[in-house]
Amino acid sequence: MAVYTHLGAEDLAQLIAHYEVGSLISAKGIAEGVSNSNWLVETSGPDGKGARYILTMYERRIETSDLPFFLGLLDHLAAKGCPVPRTIHDRSGAYYRMIGDKAVALIEFLPGVSVDRPTVGQARAVGRALAQMHLASQDFAMSRANGLDISMSHRTLEHCGEAALSGIDSELPTYIDRAAQLRDLWPVDLPRAICHTDLFPDNVLMLGDRVSALIDFYFAAEDSMAYDLAVTHASWCFEDGGHRYLPDVGQALVAGYEETRPLEPSEREQLPLLAQGACLRFVASRAEDWLNTPADALVTRKDPMDFARRLQFYADAGSGAFERPR
Ligand SMILES: Nc1ncnc2c1ncn2[C@@H]1O[C@H](COP(=O)(O)OP(=O)(O)OP(=O)(O)O)[C@@H](O)[C@H]1O
Ligand SMILES: N[C@@H](CCO)C(=O)O
């Protein structure tokens, strides 16, 4: 479920009239996603030949003041040739409009599907696309701090509290101390860029082995590029809820990244620690969401332990998780 707000045909037609996209033909709510409401909108197109767009209504969590950064970033990356959808501006040039108290944006539709079990070829392509995005974002004029850094993961877990965490899983309270340890060791001098920070398989659309779109940039922020690679590694290279690491997929992802942007030795050295911190980010946000979402809510809760297991894998494997194939 991800249409939280009803928009009638008249509301939609009125909205679409503010854009140079022709007239409204259809609008269907999109089930995927949990944060925002999304519709697939079909219009007669600017040239009368028909066109499709994604209409997003920002429901919660996203500050309207951040929208120029998120939507400007899409335009910047798309203009640099990254597989990223452009923002469609309204006739006055605005990135977004308000419907009542909610912001909406019209975004280019890009074809493709999210994969559940990435192949080696797909992982390599994602690595390349991530590195291309990092290089292309270097001269983006705006910036945004990462509000979900390692210190925040620690604070979030602490705020959840040992008792509540142990209600999810008896091991979870131990992650409060692990977060504090990682925070104290966190490297602060690695090369930085604007990072996606949430490039899970459901945020990448693919056509075969080709990345057709990187989407959902609503956690994008300045951070170390190797951290972004670690997030992507942690989210792409495991099966069965984090029980099984896929070494071929992991090696292909990093190799694809390095085809476009070779890692510096310091980045490679820190990857095991960054990957543990990346896992903690999702342990913390998932634990918090778990405690704040009733078990019978329409939205399916994501299990924090999926990422606790991955964290343990990275802690045990050390640099072995990131070794180049011989
Ligand atoms: N530019 C696009 N082109 C084609 N399809 C898209 C595009 N953007 C989004 N989609 C589709 O809409 C779905 C929901 O989008 P998205 O993941 O951004 O939702 P969300 O609620 O913001 O995300 P999340 O729940 O991950 O925070 C995607 O899974 C994809 O199928
Ligand atoms: N991709 C995240 C949700 C966004 O924070 C997760 O799967 O936990």
Return the CATH architecture of the largest domain: Alpha-Beta Complex
% residues in beta strands: 15-25%
Task: Identify the CATH homologous superfamily of the largest domain.
Answer: Aminoglycoside phosphotransferase (APH), C-terminal lobe
Q: Strand count, sense and closure of the main sheet?
A: 6 strands, antiparallel
Bound molecules: adenosine-5'-triphosphate, L-homoserine
InterPro entries: Aminoglycoside_PTrfase, Homoserine_kinase_II, Kinase-like_dom_sf, Pseudomonas-type_ThrB
Catalytic activity: L-homoserine + ATP = O-phospho-L-homoserine + ADP + H(+)
Keywords: Amino-acid biosynthesis, ATP-binding, Kinase, Nucleotide-binding, Threonine biosynthesis, Transferase
Enzyme class: transferase
Characterise this structure:
This protein is α+β, with helices and mostly antiparallel strands and 326 residues long. It folds into two domains: 9-108, Phosphorylase Kinase, domain 1, CATH 3.30.200.20; 120-322, Alpha-Beta Complex (Aminoglycoside 3'-phosphotransferase, Chain: A, domain 2). It has ten helices and twelve strands. It has helices at residues 9-16, 67-79, 120-137, 150-160, 162-168, 174-185, 225-236, 247-260, 265-292, 305-317; strands spanning 24-29, 37-43, 51-57, 87-88, 97-99, 102-108, 192-195, 204-207, 210-214, 221-224, 238-239, 244-245. Strands 1, 2, 3, 4, 5 and 6 form a six-stranded antiparallel β-sheet that branches. Strands 7-10 form a two-stranded antiparallel ribbon. Helix 3 runs antiparallel to helix 7 (225-236), helix 3 (120-137) packs parallel to helix 8 (247-260) and helix 7 crosses helix 9 (265-292). The mean pLDDT is 94. The chain binds adenosine-5'-triphosphate (ATP) and L-homoserine. Residues 2, 30, 32-36, 38, 54, 85, 107-110, 202, 213, 215-216 line the site of adenosine-5'-triphosphate. InterPro entries: Aminoglycoside_PTrfase, Homoserine_kinase_II, Kinase-like_dom_sf, Pseudomonas-type_ThrB. Pfam families: APH (PF01636). GO terms for molecular function: homoserine kinase activity.
